[in-house]
Amino acid sequence: MATQEAGKHYAEEFPRLKVGKYVGMASAPLKSTPFEPDVAMIYGDSSQLCLLLLGREYQDGYNLKCEISGHAACVYGVVPAIKTGECQVAVPCRGDHYRAMAGDEEMIFTVPRGKLDSLMAGLRAIEKTGSKLPVGYSFLPEYPLLESYRKIGQMMGYIK
Q1: Using CA atoms, how far apart are residues 133 and 80, in angstroms rounded to an integer?
Q2: Dihedral in degrees, nearest 10, Cα atoms 146, 147, 149, 155
Q3: pLDDT (tens digit, 9 = 90+) per residue, 124-138?
Q4: Largest pairwise CA distance in the chain
Q5: Are 63 and 57 in contact, with CB atoms under 8 Å apart?
Q6: 97: CB partners within 8 A, 6+ apart
Q7: Do residues 104 and 112 make contact, with C-beta atoms less than 8 angstroms apart?
Q8: How many CA atoms lie within 13 A of 156 on its CB side?
Q9: Which long-range CB contacts under 8 A does 10-15 form with residues at least 24 apart?
């Protein structure tokens, strides 16, 4: 940190679990984990992250609120999700890149166990609307205006 004051802010902002509440932390690939995890961290590119966020938002319509930092992705991805029971997005840190081979294009989406069913239901629902991977590109000189966009344009006074 550039100054002692900056270091103080860094330490104060760092997410923490309550001391004594947890005995430890373990991680393993979901496919072969010998225990039932409290959270799952999913690494994905921006298209995959977009679908995960849409699937999460499908149930309640609320945007995801999260704290993002360039360090300690394991902490920023896990601790807030455990404390709040809400999904979290984190940026892979240097350790993720150096030791866990996170790709430059990847982000992390963390989902608590209690949110998995609603996330999956949301993903299944948005898939029915055509939101799926791989993305099908469409290059037209002009696209027809959706009725919902037309109504918004009328409300804003752009379309009569």
Answers
A1: 28
A2: 160
A3: 999 998 888 888 777
A4: 64
A5: yes
A6: 104
A7: no
A8: 7
A9: 13/67, 13/69, 14/72, 14/75, 15/67, 15/75, 15/76, 15/79, 15/80, 15/83
Residue 155's CB is within 10 A of a number of other CB atoms, namely 9
Regarding beta strands 39-44 and 107-112, do their DSSP bridges make them parallel or antiparallel, or are they unpaired? Answer: antiparallel
- Residue 109 has phi, psi (to 5 degrees) of -115, 120
**Number of helices and strands (H, E) in the chain?**
6, 3
pLDDT tens digits for 59-117? Answer: 999 999 988 899 999 999 999 999 999 999 999 999 999 998 999 999 999 999 999 99
pTM of the predicted protein model: 0.83
Per the listing, tokens 């225990």 go with 35
